[in-house]
Design a protein that fits this description.
Largest sheet: 6 strands, mixed
Radius of gyration: 30 Å
CATH topology of the largest domain: Immunoglobulin-like
Number of helices: 8
Number of strands: 11
CATH architecture of the largest domain: Sandwich
Distance between the termini: 52 Å
Structural class: alpha+beta
Shape: elongated
Bound molecules: copper (II) ion
């Protein structure tokens, strides 16, 4: 589950959107075609070998010799399949696992990772035991003329064991998961959060930061226009100093609250490095609170990748250009964050002032004296 997400995330990060998309898609289908042909070829080869053996078997019988023991051959093939399968699983863990996400870069992410590893550990153990028994039994008890099958239709004790044990294990996993999820999401309003608005639409994210007052102004979807993209309500004074940003910059160690909305279809705010994901639903504001714990610079050093960037993706297939809903997320020190914030553009641009018919001439700089602003409507 997590691994697939990660693999997809990394593929998306590695490719420049739009430019390489066609080439990548062509390469992918060439690859798929190659494997389909290879599979067909292999099937034909196996079929031919089967036919040859069948003819050989018949000639043995015609000559009055002992026929081939197909049950034994099938049993041996089962064992070969078991060994090859186990090796495949081992290869998967050792090779594909290198695509694993780096260490969780958020406080709650560590808990989610622990939970993942416990579930993964249990399922891997169960996988090896059950596969060994399944293929091992098929080999050991393969059909033989020398013994008669024992009719054994039912055993209550076995039924109880293989019902109760998985039930207990799953209950423990589900309940632990439930409590972890509650601690991650059940966060009552706490003062001191840095509020950031993320609004998704086909096909981009709009980011709004609160200005020096630290409060995001109200929004009203009815006010949305081409310029007032997220429908900020200027009858609320807190709106005047709000800022618009192109990247998401977060101070390390501070509580961040993402206020999430969608304007058309369901999108999903997905920041895998922070183990953050929640849907952006039209008409239903959602939010996610988390504390980033590792700066981008520290992560660059840790992953030994000078180009490393945290990313925000859309994780719902929301339309043709879904893949382009990507933004860079930078985690910096609080000082750097404040400096960056002071360089961001006001949401209330001159164009928007004109649209709102504000008295632009009397306006000194925003946001020092927002009280002097006048609305004509
Ligand atoms: Cu989307």
């Amino acid at each position: 589950m997590l691994l697939t997400g990660v693999a997809m995330a990394q593929t998306a990060a590695a490719t420049t959107p739009a430019v390489d998309a066609d080439a990548a898609s062509e390469a992918m289908w060439t690859g798929v075609g190659y494997y389909v042909l290879l599979f067909l070829l292999l099937s034909i080869v196996v079929g031919i070998i089967g036919k040859i053996l069948k003819v050989y078997d018949l000639t043995l019988q015609i000559q009055g010799k002992e026929a081939m023991n197909w049950n034994r051959i099938m049993g041996i093939i089962f064992v070969i399949f078991l060994i090859v399968g186990f090796y495949g699983a081992y290869w998967e863990f050792t090779n594909q696992a290198t695509m694993h996400l780096p260490e969780a870069a958020s406080a709650h992410g560590v808990k989610i990772d622990d939970m993942f590893m416990v579930t993964f550990g249990i399922t891997v153990i169960v996988f090896f035991i059950t596969q060994f028994l399944l293929f091992g039994f098929a080999f050991k008890y393969s059909g033989s003329n020398k013994r008669k099958a024992y009719f054994y239709p039912h055993n209550n004790t076995i039924e109880k064991i293989w019902t109760v044990i998985p039930a207990i294990v799953l209950t423990i996993l589900v309940i632990t998961g439930f409590f972890t999820w509650t601690t991650v999401t059940n966060t009552a309003e706490v003062k001191g959060d840095i509020n950031i608005d993320i609004t998704g639409h086909q096909f981009a994210w709009e980011i709004r930061y609160p200005g020096p007052d630290g409060i995001l102004g109200k929004k009203n979807y009815k006010l949305t226009t081409g310029i007032n993209k997220v429908g900020v309500d200027y009858s609320d004074k807190n709106s005047f100093d709000d800022l618009v940003a192109d990247t998401i910059v977060l101070p390390v160690g501070k509580s961040i609250r993402l206020n999430i909305q969608a304007q058309d279809v369901i999108h999903s705010v997905y920041m895998p490095h922070f183990r953050v994901q929640i849907n952006a639903v039209p008409g239903l504001p959602t939010y996610f609170k988390f504390v980033p714990t590792i700066t981008t610079a520290a992560m660059k050093a840790e992953t030994d990748n000078p180009k490393f960037e945290y990313l925000l993706y859309c994780n719902k297939i929301c339309g043709a250009s879904h893949y382009s809903m990507q933004k860079v997320v930078r985690v910096v020190s609080y000082g750097e964050y404040l400096d960056w914030l002071s360089h961001q553009k006001p949401y209330l641009s001159d164009q928007l002032k004109k649209e709102l018919k504000m008295v632009v001439d009397t306006l000194p700089t925003i946001p020092e004296t927002p009280k002097k602003l006048a609305l004509n409507n």
